[in-house]
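Listing S7. Sequence submitted for prediction.
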Amino acid sequence: MGIKDTSYQEVDGGRTQWVGADSILFATTHRPWPAPMGPWIMTQRWNDLLFLHYSLQPEIVRSLVPEVLTLDTYQQRAWVSVTPFWINHLRPPGVPSLPWFSHFSEINVRTYVTYQGKPGVYFFSLDASNLSAVWGARVFYRLPYWQASMKVQGKGGARIDYVSKRQHGPKPAELRCSYGPATPLLFHARPGSLEHFLTERYCLYAFARKRLYRGEIHHLPWELQEAAVALQQNTMTQAAGIQLPPQPELAHFARELKVLCWAPERLL
């Protein structure tokens, strides 16, 4: 699995916490397919993540997704999600985090697709506050990243204030909201449920210059909470040609998630 990071378990209040980037590879039974055998190239931690899930007619989304990908639906409905969060501990294996590169905020706008039966996500856009991360992801992962001015207050607290405004890109995109967990109850999405369909995805697809790529990721099952959201502005999907309802159909919160990423594989 590449360069090994030190891995061990800590038990905090009866709850097992995996320490070290490689350690989460000991838990893979929840995955729909085995984790890649090759070395992972990047680890990162996603923090204070908000899922804003919107249900749409499939024909609205189908025309915006590359034809080579199959639009994945749940009970004949397509879904688009807007997910603000902030990242830290981003680094390659065996390399320490660098403050100027490893810590930044991000918002992604995604829908749900499959290719040859393998479910994943397809990004309409990804906004980030770190210019180096934006250009690195655009070149290496062929993803539609854009630089944005972002301000996140209340990190790790009961209420997060999130403000983002795209600085470069084809069209404006802004998000202003306050959010946090609505309840202390944590849950794992049940297989077959809508929550599982929307969150438990272990690869991403990118389409650039008529070439299709898949990037594998690995993480433990999401620990979700119902979210309380005050949404002041959300124009994140308009650049993609998607008009969202005023409020999401579902909103979930996740405090943190450790993620491993593999190099993208060209499929076509």
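Caption to Listing S7: primary sequence and predicted structure tokens for the chain studied. The helical segments are 58-62, 99-102, 131-141, 194-199. Residues 1-18 have pLDDT under 50 and may be disordered.
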